[in-house]
Task: inverse folding
């Protein structure tokens, strides 16, 4: 105030004011530094206290529990600001609360804290040396199931195709014999668990379907094979038997849709009098096929829990409802007609697959007690 008074007095008396202004500006320059120092001195103890308070309160709560002061221990433990704490500290608080509630006979509150404890660390395995027996028993009674899973599936050497002829087309008096062939299937699957017994699975599978056709007429023996590669999307509901055991049995069923990626034929015609062979290999037949396939899928499977996932073996039957033949292209390929006496039949392709795979658990779900 004296500086401001001196400046005003100097102006009124027409005195020189440089010395007064110099004092003012010097004080103005030092003011932010002084203010920052004061704030640091005032706030630093608060920061240090907040960093130490969580651990200190937890220690005090643990001592109160050990001394049998359960109400005080609960009050101290619940006073910790666990929402802002790291996950490991939140887990420590819920573990301590669970133990305190168990010792105090508050079973419902103990279960609630134990469920929160497992939500923070679903893969926790009870420590028989450090965890009380009551805590171990409670944790074992809580069901933890995988919520989302991601799996990699591979055919186990059997993906058998079963052609069904809904309408046949021939150019002479002969019969075609269809033979199913084995091929491959591989891809990804994802699962979402709705309950302890029910899971929804969606797959994305590359599926090869293959078959062979044989027929004979006059002096000719003809053999045709075809391989079709689909991208299939099965959507299935799985019912899980014995979900709490290491081994599970599943019964599944649903729908599938498929998109044709590529297909090809190989033709062989033998003129028997001269034993002369004519061949046409790797003929692209995609334009002669309908691109979309659909139908029902169902099967059974078994899984075995290994680490944080399931090793599984499944057998599924894909019952197609779609004709693979593009009827508009049936008569467009004269080379097949004149050289091999061939026309496409109306065909529905179903297949049986046996697959082995491994599904990784992405996260978990605690089944709440009702």
Result:
């Amino acid at each position: 105030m004296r500086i401001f008074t001196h400046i005003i007095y100097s102006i009124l008396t027409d005195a020189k004011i440089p010395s007064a202004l110099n004092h003012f500006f010097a004080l103005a320059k030092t003011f932010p530094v002084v203010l920052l120092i004061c704030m640091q001195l005032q706030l630093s103890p608060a920061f240090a206290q907040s960093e130490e308070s969580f651990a200190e309160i937890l220690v005090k709560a643990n001592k109160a529990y050990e001394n049998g002061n359960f109400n005080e221990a609960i009050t101290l433990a619940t006073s910790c600001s666990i929402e802002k704490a790291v996950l490991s500290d939140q887990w420590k608080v819920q573990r301590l609360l669970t133990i305190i509630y168990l010792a105090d006979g508050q079973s419902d509150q103990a279960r609630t804290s134990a469920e929160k404890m497992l939500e923070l660390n679903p893969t926790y395995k009870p420590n028989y040396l450090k965890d009380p027996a009551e805590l171990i028993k409670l944790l074992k009674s809580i069901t933890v199931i995988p919520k989302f899973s991601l799996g990699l599936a591979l055919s186990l050497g059997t993906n058998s195709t079963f052609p069904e002829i809904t309408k046949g087309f021939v150019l002479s008096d002969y019969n075609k014999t269809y033979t199913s062939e084995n091929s491959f299937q591989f891809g990804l699957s994802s699962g979402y668990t709705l309950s302890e017994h029910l899971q929804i699975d969606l797959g994305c599978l590359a599926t090869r379907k293959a078959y062979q056709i044989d027929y004979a007429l006059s002096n000719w023996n003809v053999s045709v094979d075809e391989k079709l590669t689909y991208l299939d999307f099965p959507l299935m509901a799985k019912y899980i038997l014995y979900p709490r055991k290491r081994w599970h049995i599943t019964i599944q069923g649903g729908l599938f849709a498929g998109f044709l990626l590529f297909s090809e034929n190989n033709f062989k015609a033998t003129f028997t009098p001269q034993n002369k062979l004519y061949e046409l290999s790797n003929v692209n037949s995609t334009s002669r096929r309908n691109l979309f396939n659909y139908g029902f899928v169902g099967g059974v499977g078994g899984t075995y829990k290994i680490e944080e996932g399931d090793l599984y073996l499944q057998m599924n039957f894909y019952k197609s409802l779609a004709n693979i033949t593009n009827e508009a292209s049936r008569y467009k390929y004269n080379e097949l007609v004149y050289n091999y006496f061939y026309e496409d039949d109306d065909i529905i392709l179903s297949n049986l697959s046996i697959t082995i795979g491994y599904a990784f658990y992405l996260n978990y779900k605690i089944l709440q007690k009702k």
Summary: The longest strand covers residues 247-271. The radius of gyration is 38 Å. The chain has two domains: 1-142, 145-366. Confidence is low (pLDDT under 50) at residues 7-18, 31-52.
